[in-house]
Amino acid sequence: MSGEERIDYLVVGGGPAGIQAAYFLERAGRDYLLVEAGEAPGTFFTKFPRHRTMISINKVHTGWDDPELKLRTDWNSLLSEGNHPLFTAVTPRYFPQADDFVRYLGDFARTHRVRIRGNTRITRISRLPAGDGSPRGDFEATTEDGTVLRAGRLIMATGVSRPYVPPIDGAELAERYDEVSVDPADFTGKRVLIIGRGNSAFETADNLVETAAVIHVAGPGSLKLAWQTHFVGHLRAVNNNFLDTYQLKSQNALLDGEIVRITRDEADGGYRVAVNFLRVEEVVKEIRYDRVILATGFRFDASVFAEECRPELTIKDRFPAQTDAWESVNVPDVYFAGTITQVRDFKKSTSGFIHGFRYAVRALHRILEQRYHGTPWPRRDLDGEPEAVADAVMERINRTSALWQMFGFLCDAVVVSGTGATGYYEEVPVDHLHQVAGDGAFGAADRYLTVTLEYGEDHDKLNPFDISAGRLSQQTATGLDGRYLHPVVRVFQDGKPVAEHHLTENLENEWDSADVHRAPLVRFLAAQLAPGSPAPGTSESGSAGTRPAPGTSRPPAPRQAAPEHPDFPEDAAADPS
């Protein structure tokens, strides 16, 4: 096929993020096309993860009837009207097989009649100048067969498609995670070094425990465990059996150090690897291995873009830098969806994973509808009384899956105008709200509230199994010192933070006590929503669970680009799009 086509939206990448974006475009009746390099949706998952078991949970039996609550433990289903189809109907496996997910993506795309064109690999993206000479003309995406797809806007959902090779002298001599054999028999009796500290590295190590003579897993920095940090991209329990073999003296080891260089012995084909240990006073030690494997993660491929419209990259050039609206910081009208959006909450929340970015894609769609089609963010009106606002907040925090999954990143917004009119907006990116609330994107705003679910301060520094570390009583009315996931309500006036209120954590995640949860929230709202309520930086009602937020000259600035991370950025996404 060759020729030229024109569409408003070109979605590039037929993984879960691309299909989710296309679903919303289809439902809104927009002019779009989704292109996928492979034959069918989810081609990435036909190869990855290499050992075929996903670590995104699939809990079928929850005891709940509410479909919204069920999405809290269903990390693979995409969002749709009527919640159909769901991945939980495909397999009962808690850690499902990747092939089942490929079948699910195809079924979802067919069910919702997503306009997807397979076997369509984009080889170059350029941009035409606009008629007025500005650089905001159509994009031209050229495919392998010479077809030119012209589009006003791009949604890049291509994931992290190229291996990240760290700057190690001799790294090119090592085998890569995406290419190395997954047959344990090929490593029988071998001394194996795996470079990387993420799930792919430990997944590989666990696969070789029965056959390899020695396995070392190496990388700089402290090993971080997901059950402690609450970041699901850190080492998951399902992949950490290797740690037992290390701590119980079974010839395997975790090397806390930097790989200085890799050389290869021409005589026997073995490797010599120089390791600079970080926790001991020791010179660089050279260790012999039979096999060396790089499991240091992946990165976004920007090479398809022409120079005049190539997105700026960040975090060791692994991800595109993005605004609070997931738009390229230097190329207007290029948006991103899926695991590559994790620069907005790098190693903090869940934008890098299906159960997080499915909600981000819905939020992105609402932003696009506002910007380009004049469709306001969905709103429901409240009468503005503290009790009514409290009831709306309570209803949401006890059901929402979006705020649950994207903790601290998405919020519900309550916008109050000078006339007392109150609007409730669901699932708004916090940074985006701060940027646009003053411009009237969410109506006239005298002040606004954010409702989030968050872990407490320093939660990742506490061993949750240490019984000497006290926990807050579930019967106390203050949630200020809660470290587990709990609701937080913050108030902003004239763009400045005024105060915040924490609801006490609860074992069952049910914040519905009239005395412990609702009454303190009503008191807080009564003080903050009343005319003449405290100015920024002053104390307020003094109700339990409440403290004033520090006054600033403006709301928190959006993270236009995530900071450089000192470790190998391996496995930033366990199940990338």
Layout of strands and helices, then pairs:
Layout: E1 4-12, H1 16-28, E2 32-35, H2 67-70, H3 98-111, E3 116-117, E4 122-127, E5 139-143, E6 148-156, E7 162-163, E8 175-176, E9 191-195, H4 199-208, E10 214-219, H5 226-229, H6 241-247, E11 253-264, E12 271-277, E13 285-289, E14 291-294, E15 298-299, E16 313-314, E17 319-320, E18 334-336, H7 354-373, E19 380-382, H8 386-397, H9 402-405, E20 410-416, E21 422-429, H10 430-436, E22 447-454, E23 486-493, E24 496-502, H11 514-529, E25 546-548
Parallel strand pairs: 1-2, 1-6, 2-3, 6-18, 8-14, 9-10, 9-14, 10-11
Antiparallel strand pairs: 4-5, 5-6, 7-15, 11-12, 12-13, 16-17, 19-21, 20-21, 20-22, 22-23, 23-24, 24-25
In words, what does this structure look like?
There is one protein chain. The protein has 577 residues and is an alpha/beta fold. It has eleven helices and 25 strands. Strands 1, 2, 3, 4, 5, 6 and 18 form a seven-stranded mixed beta sheet that branches. It has a seven-stranded mixed beta sheet with strand order 8-14-9-10-11-12-13. A hairpin with a 5-residue loop joins strand 20 and strand 21. Helix 1 runs parallel beside helix 7 and helix 8 crosses helix 11. The C terminus is likely disordered.
